Amino acid sequence: MAGPPHSxxxxxxxxTRVFATAGILALLALAADAPFAAAGPVxxxxxxxxxxxxxxxxxxxxxxxxxxxxxxxxxxxxxVKNRSFEFPERMMGWFKVSxxxxxxxxxxxxxxxxxxxxxxxRLRSEGTAPFGVSNEGFRGMGFRRGETYDFSAELRVAxxxxxxxxELVGGDGSTLASGRLEGGSAEWKxxxxxxxxxxxDAKSRLNVILEGAGTVEIDMVSLFPRKTWKxxxxxxxxxxxxxxxxxxxxxxxxxxxxxxxxxxxxxxxQWQKTLGPVEDRELLVNRWNYEFKHRPTPDYYQSFGxxxxxYFQMAEDIGAQPLPILGCGMAxxxxxxxxxxxxxxxxxxxxxxxxxxxxxxxxxTAWGAKRAQLGHPEPFNMKMLGxxxxxxxxxxxxxxxxxxxxxxxxxxEIALVAAAGPSPQDERYHYLWPExxxxxxDIVDEHCYANPIWFLSHADRYDGYDRKGPKVxxxxxxxxxxxxxxxxxxxxxxxxxxxxAFMTGLERNADVVHMASYAPLFAxxxxxxxxxxxxxxxxxxxxxxxxxxxxxxxxxxxxxxxxPVSSDAPVTEILPAGRxxxxxxxxxxxxxxxxxxxxxETLLAPSPAADASFRQPDAEASRSxxxxxxxxxxxxxxxxxxxxGGAEGLVATVYDDGxxxxxxxxxxxxGNTRHAIETQYAQQGQLVAQTPGSLxxxxxxxxxxxxxxxxxECFLDGKLVQSAEVLPRQTRQVYASATRDEKTGDYILKxxxxxxxxxxxxxxxxxxARLSGSAxxxxxxxxxNDVVNTxxxxxxxxxxxxxxxxxxxxxxxxxxxxxxxxxxxGSTAP
Length: 830
Ligand code: AHR
What we know:
- A hairpin with a 5-residue loop joins strand 35 (650-656) and strand 36 (662-668).
- Helix content is 15%, strand content 36%.
- By secondary structure, the chain is of the alpha+beta class.
- 49% of the residues are buried.
- Residues 1-35 have low confidence and may be disordered.
- The chain is globular, with a radius of gyration of 29 Å.
- The two termini are 37 Å apart.
- An eight-stranded parallel β-sheet has the order 3-15-18-19-20-21-22-23. Strands 4, 7, 8, 10, 11 and 13 form a six-stranded antiparallel β-sheet that branches. A six-stranded antiparallel β-sheet has the order 27-43-44-49-46-47, covered by helices on one side.
- Bound molecules: alpha-L-arabinofuranose.
- Alpha-L-arabinofuranose binds next to loops.
- Alpha-L-arabinofuranose is lined by residues 65, 67, 256-258, 389-390, 422, 447, 476, 519-520, 530.
C-alpha cells in the first residue's frame, strides 16, 4: 500500500494488529463513555536493546506566518505602523495632534508614480502653537522604563525653520520621553534621536511635533527598541525570538501559511522583493487583512522588514534548518483560487531557482554576492523547499509536477515539500496522496485543525503508513477547544495533552514522519485573526501556552533513535451523541413535521414554531439551525423538506456535540449532483459515503435518519439511500513513546495521561544496559482541562522537573491526572 491507508477499515484492521502485537489485547471498554476501570497498572514495555528508526534531528520545528500580527506588529520590532505612508489609506495609523490655537496641515504627498516608497508626509505649521502628528503603533507601542528607543526619519525642511520634536506619550497622555531632531536642512537627510522613557507602558504612541512656523517633509518614520534580538539595529523583538530559540526547533518554516499564496496572484508573496534596504521593500496587503469578517484587520499590511534574508538569519541563529515555502502559481483556494496558466509558470519556477541560488550559491555568483552584500557570505545551507502551501486538486498536481521536473533536474539535493490540502482525511487528501506517491514526492505536508478527541483517536495514524512512500511533514496542527475562531477556542491543558498524545504517535513513527510543527505560532492579544496559537504576545510580554511547553518538551527530549514500546493501556470508545440541526448549503428551503424519537419516547415534537425556526429563505446562504440536547443518542430524526431554490442542497445534522463533532447528511450537494454522509471533528470533515443524487426544487421530501451507535441510516421518501458509520472516537488511558539519546545514553520515555484520574504505570526496560539508578522526570500538568496560562498567571501550566531515585529495569510510577511526563532514565552504557 502506498502512502496513507485509504479507508477507515484498513485503519481499524491495523489498530487491531498493533494492539495484538502489544501482547495483551487492551481492555476495550465498548460501553459508552465508560471510565477506565480501576484495573491494575498499565505496563509499558520498552525494548531498550532493539533500537528502531533514527529520528530526524530536525523532527520538531516551528511554522511561522505573518498572521495575528506575527511579523509586523510582532516579531519585527518596528513600532511605527505605516512608517512610509504607503498604506492605501495614506494616513492610516496616524492622526493629527493639533491643540487649541494650532493651525497647520498634515498631508501625504507623492514623489513620483513608481517605486516602493513613493509617498511622504508634508507637515505645515503656522507656528501659533505646536502642531504635528501621532502614530498609534500596532495596537499601541510598548516602552520599557530606562531602555533606549531609536527614532529615525528621512526629513527635509521645505520652508521656515520650525523646530521638530519627538515625544513618546503614554496611554494616559503623559510624556515618557522627548527630544529635538537636530540637523534638518533643505535636502532630504536621515536624522536620528535616542529616547529613554521614564516609565513602562504597553499602550503608548509617538508624536512628531513642529514648533514655530514652517513646512517639514518627513518619510520612513521609524522607532525601534535598541535592545533587539542580537542587538541588530532595525531587528527583531528579542523576547519573541528567545521564545522560539527556547524551543530548540529543528526547522523554521516560513513565511506561511496562506500569505504565501495571497488572496489573488497579484498580491502573492514574492520573496525577492523582501531583500535590501527596507525603504525599497514594496508594501503588500496581508492576506489576513480581509479574512474573517467578524474580526476584520483593515490595517494589516506587510512591510517585509522581516524579509527572506532575516528569516534565513533567524533560522541560523536559533539552530533551525530553513524551510521556505513558495507559491506555485495558485492563489489561496479559500479565496480566489486564481491559477497561473501552465504555460506561464516559468517565472514562478524561476523564483524557486533564484531562491536556491540566493540561499546556497557561492559568493562568486550573482545571488551569492547579493547574500554576501546583505551580510552573510556563507551559504545558508538550505536543504528543503515547499512548493505551494495548502493546495489541492489536479491543478496543484500538475503545477507541482512542473516545479518538480525542473528543480529535481537542477537541484536533486533539495528535498521538495508537497501539499496534501487542508485536512488530514478528506476527499482532497485522499486524492492528493496517491498522486504524490506516483510522482515520488520527497515530503508531503499534512494539515490538521481538529478537536482534542481527533488527536486522541488518531495517535496510531501513522502505524499503517507505507514505510517506503514519501515522508510526512505534519506541517500545521493544533487541537481546537472550540470549533470556531474565537476567544472560546483556547490554548488549554486539554488541547495541549491531546497534541502530546498524538505526538507520541508521530515519534513512534519517526521513520515515516520526518517533521512536525504546531500552527499558528504567534498571536497578538489585540490583533489576532486565528485561535488557538502557540505563543501569545502583547506589546511588552510573551506568554507561553501549555501547547508551547508540549512542543518544547518533545523537542528538547527528542532522542536519536526510536525504541519500540508496547502498552496494555485500556481503550475507551466514545459513542457519538448530540443535537440535530437542519439547514442548507447555498440553497433556500423549508422544513416541517420535524420529530425526534427514541424507542417510544418523543424527544422533539413537531411545532409550527420549530418549522419556522428551521426555514432558510436565502438561496445564497449556508446556515444550519440546531435543536435538542448534546446527550441525545440512538434516535431517529424525521422531517419533511422542500428546496425552494439555490445551487446546492439540504443539510441535516445529527450527533452535534456542540463542540465541533457532528455528522451530516448532505442532500443534493456538489451542484445538486450528490447525496453524501460527512462526519466531522471540529474543522476536519470526512465523507464516509456518497452516491449520485439530486433534489427537485419545490417538491416535498420525506427524510429519515436512524441512528444506532455509530451507524447512521439515511432514508429519502421511505427508501434507504445511504448508510455509514460516523468516525470512531476513542481514548487510551495512557499514550507513550520511547527514544534513546545516543550522546548521554539516556532512555527517554514520554507518557501522556489525558484522563481525570491518576494512572499507575509499570515501566519495563527490556535489555537496558548499565542504568544509573535515577531518572529525571519533567511533568506538565494542571488542575483542570480548561486551565490556561494568562499574562497575570503565566506559569499555571509549566513543566516541573524532579529527580526520581531507585530506577531499575522495572519500576512503577504514578502519572498525575491530565499530565505529560518526560522521563529521562540515566544510563552509563554507550
Ligand atoms: O495556520 C493558519 C492557516 O491555516 C494557514 O495560513 C493555512 O495554511 C491554514 O489554512
